[in-house]
């Protein structure tokens, strides 16, 4: 039953994202400055991001649904950031799409990830749990819009698409563990350094904020490339 409810929430998120919508005020302020940072993205990374944009553009041109699944090892940090920021970028630029995330292992969405997203302007509350160690976080970014449901899951989980999606591998371990992602019509490796190495240090918040901002910047760059 819980899986069915989560799937319905994901579907509602897709339906209500067809047109550009105003983000929550604090998040809107955060996002307004992102485009000015596109020049910080190096040319090699832009080539990878162009592959993602090309996939989305082909779906737009064919009037087909757009589904992106971000994959890392634990579905705890980078893949969660990817799912969130790709969705927000789509809303910001008026592109309807569904975003997902998953891991090669199931752990939990790390509280440091949640804290960084809250500092960026999202409203997040706990909304049940998958297990005693794997809470569900409801992340809101537009007034009246169904929240994203963040929790750790395997990339092939029933709440994720099983076919016709782009698999975006955001860590080298997942890239090596998943040479083939079953059901994916595109597989793109675009890695990020794991902020986990800062856990428990004075640099912890700064490192998570930097990773959050980096992924936001690059996802916004992808959607800025699109021709609607």
Would you kindly provide a written description of the structure presented here, covering whatever features stand out?
By secondary structure, the chain is α/β, with parallel strands linked by helices. It has one domain (2-224): Response regulator (Rossmann fold, 3-Layer(aba) Sandwich), CATH 3.40.50.2300. The chain is built from seven helices and seven strands; from the N terminus they run H-H-H-E-H-E-H-E-E-E-E-H-E-H. It has helices at residues 2-15, 25-32, 43-61, 78-93, 111-120, 172-177, 204-224; strands at residues 67-72, 98-103, 123-131, 134-140, 148-150, 165-169, 184-189. It has a four-stranded parallel β-sheet. It has a three-stranded antiparallel β-sheet with strand order 3-4-5, sandwiched between helices. Strand 3 and strand 4 form a beta hairpin. Helix 3 packs across helix 7 (204-224), helix 4 (78-93) crosses helix 7 (204-224) and helix 5 (111-120) packs across helix 7. It is globular, with a radius of gyration of 16 Å. Residues 1-19 have low confidence and may be disordered.
